[in-house]
Structures are given as C-alpha cells and as structure tokens.
C-alpha cells in the first residue's frame, strides 16, 4: 500500500511538472471568465435594475452566462493534448506499460490525474461565478445558473477523455472517424437552451460523462500492441 501511494505521488508530481503551465494558464482563463460574468451581472443590474434583470432571466429566455460556455470545453481538450501527445509521440508511455502495474489501471490513473486537475479548475470557476451572483440574484436564479453551467463542465470532462481516446489512435482514417463521433457526442452538452433548461437531462449527461472515462481503453490497447490497421 505504501509503495502504491508513493507511486501515485510520483505520478502526480510528474504530470504536474509536465503540464503545469497549461494548467496555470487555463486556471487563470477560467477565473477571468467567472469574474467577467460576475461583473457583467452587476453591470446589468446597475443599468436596468435588479427587478428588470430578474424578470428577463425568468420570462424572456435571456442567458447571460454564454461567456463561460466553451471555456471548460477548450480546457479539457488542451489538458488532454498537453498530457498525452508528448507521451505518445515520443513513445514514453510504452515504458510505463512495463511497470509492475496493470496497464489499464495505469492508464486510468493517468486520466484520473487529468480529471483531478480539471476538477480543481472547474470548481474554482464555479465557486467564483456562483458566489458573485448569489449577492444579487434570488436563490431560484442562482440554482438555474448552476444547472446552466453543469452541462458545460461535464462537457469539458467528457471532451478530455474523448481527446485522449483520439490521441491514442494511430491510423489516420480511424482517428478522423473518432473525431467525428466525439464531436457529435460533445454537442449533447452544448445545445442552445434557456437558463436552467438542462435540468431533466443532467442525470443522463452525468452517466454519459462517466462512460466517457473508459473510451480511451480500446485505442490505448491498439497503441501499445502496435496495431496500425
């Protein structure tokens, strides 16, 4: 158990050193997007008054949160690229497969490290955004805001895992096919909708995100076995 925890610690440090600047960059971008949202809401209240803003949020299908929509998506994709492209191109990840650990277990540990980094970034962004609007919007509208944000963050995590799946694929035709499938899948998380409209779909999107955790295992198997057809 001690050796396992030491290995996880070493793995965490390795991944942090490798992609720390990407993580820090997107962490700053995420905090900026949340802060901008907060300032926009306060500015709109100054212009039209709180009651008028609440009215258009409730009845006029106004969605002021679009600024944040694609930040989680680009964050997930960028972290996957930074984390795995050097490993795959330089064949370094094949060395890990010779460690005394199950290969799939090692891959899951690597992607869980990425999930941990994403979770910290997304949670920080979410807390700043929700804390900022809690002081000026009623509870129902804050809840609707959270429901609006949730698919975007789930989409970012899903995009991370689907990008890892594509990176491990070694043939151009299959890679293109997987990109098309992944792109169509991701659109489920980014449908145009009014504030809070995703409430009924959140459980299904959560299940789809969990399933995405395992999508890279097949292409990773092909990669480590050298299957190029």
From TrEMBL:
Keyword Transmembrane helix: yes
Source taxon at top rank: Bacteria
Residues that span the membrane, as ranges: 21-39, 67-86, 116-137, 149-168, 175-194, 200-221
Sorted UniProt keywords: Membrane, Transmembrane, Transmembrane helix
Protein name: ABC-2 family transporter
């Amino acid at each position: 158990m001690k050796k396992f925890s030491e290995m996880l610690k070493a793995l965490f440090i390795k991944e942090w050193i490798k992609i720390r600047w990407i993580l820090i960059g997107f962490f700053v971008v995420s905090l900026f997007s949340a802060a901008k949202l907060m300032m926009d809401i306060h500015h709109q209240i100054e212009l039209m008054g709180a009651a008028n803003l609440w009215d258009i949020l409730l009845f006029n299908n106004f969605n002021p949160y679009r600024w944040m929509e694609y930040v989680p998506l680009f964050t997930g994709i960028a972290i996957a690229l930074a984390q795995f492209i050097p490993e795959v191109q330089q064949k370094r990840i094949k060395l890990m497969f010779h460690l005394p650990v199950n290969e799939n277990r090692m891959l899951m540990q690597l992607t869980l490290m990425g999930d941990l980094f994403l979770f910290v970034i997304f949670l920080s962004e979410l807390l700043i955004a929700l804390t900022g609007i809690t002081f000026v919007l009623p509870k129902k509208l804050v809840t609707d805001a959270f429901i609006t944000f949730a698919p975007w963050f789930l989409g970012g995590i899903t995009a991370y895992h689907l990008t890892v799946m594509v990176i491990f694929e070694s043939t151009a035709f299959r890679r293109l096919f997987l990109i098309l499938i992944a792109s169509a899948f991701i659109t489920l998380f980014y449908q145009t909708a009014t504030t809070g409209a995703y409430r009924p779909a959140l459980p299904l999107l959560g299940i789809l995100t969990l399933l995405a955790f395992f999508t890279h295992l097949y292409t990773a198997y092909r990669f480590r076995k050298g299957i190029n057809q």
